[in-house]
Design brief:
single chain, about 260 residues, alpha/beta, Lyase 2-enoyl-coa Hydratase, Chain  A, domain 2, 2 domains, six-stranded mixed sheet, four-stranded mixed sheet, 11 helices, about 50% helix, about 15% strand, globular, binds octanoyl-coenzyme A
Length: about 260
């Protein structure tokens, strides 16, 4: 369902969620945050959707951050509530059983980069710029950036980016390990679609379990993570997909996964 600030389009198993506030470079007001969370919950429930892609409307921006004009007048309580709602929305992406790809088509700054970092991986347009400029505004990332970025690229590079507030080009962000792939702007959608379709052809219970194992494993000791992995591995042997996948291999045919 489309809302004032989000567009949802389901195409061939892929649910495209577009942040739609291009006149403000898709900056995240509280209303946009709420609309995004609600759209993500709908996509998680929609059986026609196997992979979700988040992108930004217009030519210029993925999301240029939290809405500075709204934040400018907040007191501590409103700021806490804003950050809490934002963190809840980005945490939901990690809880989704479906993979979520960020298609970063332009500026991904502050809360915008934090939204992209909460996704499972990022593909970016050559003209994208990525950074966490919060300290240039007298605040810090409040959308998970101080936690997700160091886990992704290590503390020292995360500190450099967060302390300086500088923006990286898409190519630099790829070299830093923030972005998986960079494409010319006109190819981004097709390349994201190609990868999303490759994922969607697989056993989606298995893909969801792999996401679960990786995300939760990162917060566990290696031993606990391995134990968690083996329990998820074992559970998949109760699925039709495991039987279909292995029987199809033996019969030298393509597997027809049902996601159950
Ligand atoms: N908030 C509100 N409005 C914005 C934002 C923003 N983050 N970014 C751009 N806009 C608006 C501009 O004010 C302008 O509006 P108007 O036409 O009414 O003046 C319109 O979008 C177009 O922007 P510009 O004219 O500035 O476009 P330029 O091409 O000249 O510049 C930039 C593009 C470089 C991206 C520039 O707009 C910019 O620096 N934007 C701010 C980037 C930023 O600092 N982001 C971080 C914000 S802080 C944050 O994200 C903290 C979030 C953590 C908590 C979140 C909890 C939910």
């Amino acid at each position: 369902m489309n809302t004032e600030y989000t567009l949802t389009e389901v195409n061939d198993g892929i649910g495209w969620l577009t942040v739609n506030r291009p006149d403000s470079l898709n900056a995240l007001t509280s209303e946009v945050v709420a609309a995004l969370e609600s759209a993500l919950r709908d996509l998680e429930q929609d059986p026609a959707v196997k992979v979700v892609v988040i992108t930004g409307a217009g030519e210029k921006a993925f999301v240029a951050g939290g809405d500075i004009k709204e934040m400018a007048n907040m007191g501590p309580l409103a700021a806490k509530e804003y950050a809490r709602r934002g963190q809840q929305m980005v945490s939901f992406i990690g809880k989704m059983s479906k993979p979520v790809i960020a298609a970063v088509n332009g500026y991904a700054l502050g809360g915008g980069l934090e939204l992209a970092l909460a996704c499972d991986f990022i593909y970016a347009s050559e003209k994208a710029k990525l950074g966490l400029p919060e300290v240039t505004l007298g605040v810090i990332p409040g959308f998970g950036g101080t936690q997700n970025l160091p886990r992704l690229i290590g503390p020292n590079r995360a500190k450099e980016l967060i302390f300086s507030g500088k923006a990286l080009t898409a190519q630099q962000a790829k070299e830093w390990g923030i972005v998986n792939e960079v494409f010319p702007p006109e190819e981004l959608r097709a390349k994201v679609t190609e990868t999303a379709q490759a994922i969607a052809r697989n056993g989606m219970l298995a893909v969801g379990s792999a996401k679960d194992a990786i995300l939760h494993g990162l917060d566990m000791s290696k031993e606990d993570g391995l134990r968690y992995e083996s329990s998820l591995f074992a559970t998949l042997f109760a699925s039709d997909d495991q039987k279909e996948g292995m029987q199809a291999f033996i019969a030298k045919r393509k597997a027809e996964f049902k996601g159950k």
